[in-house]
Amino acid sequence: MTSTPQTTEIEAATFRRLLAHLMRERPDVQNIDLMILAGFCRNCLADWYRDAAAGLGVEMSRDEARAAVYGRPFAEWKAEHQRPASAEQLAAFEAARRAHPQDG
């Protein structure tokens, strides 16, 4: 991708739109389903967010990173939206993990 003076702003706006989509428009999509299909989930985004902060010398806890991604404390979001994984989801997750060990 060609870098322009606006690249950072474009990437930031895209990231904000992805978060809005995952949090407000599709909270019904479970993290485990994202992991099965895409190899990442909202928690992965929070981990990447924290890694990026650390790369810039900004210390951030795991809870702080998750709150930045979820828009509120993770425990609140989880209680409202996350369901226990089914046996089928767990089996599919394990199969995906074996097929793509670098993702999980």
Automatic annotation (TrEMBL):
Region listing for Disordered, in residue ranges: 81-104
Entries under Gene3D superfamilies matching the protein: SMc04008-like
Organism: Luteimonas endophytica
Comp. bias (Basic and acidic residues): 95-104
Protein name stated in the entry: DUF1244 domain-containing protein
Biased composition (Low complexity): 85-94
Signal peptide: none
SUPFAM superfamilies: SMc04008-like
Residues covered by the SMc04008-like domain: 29-94
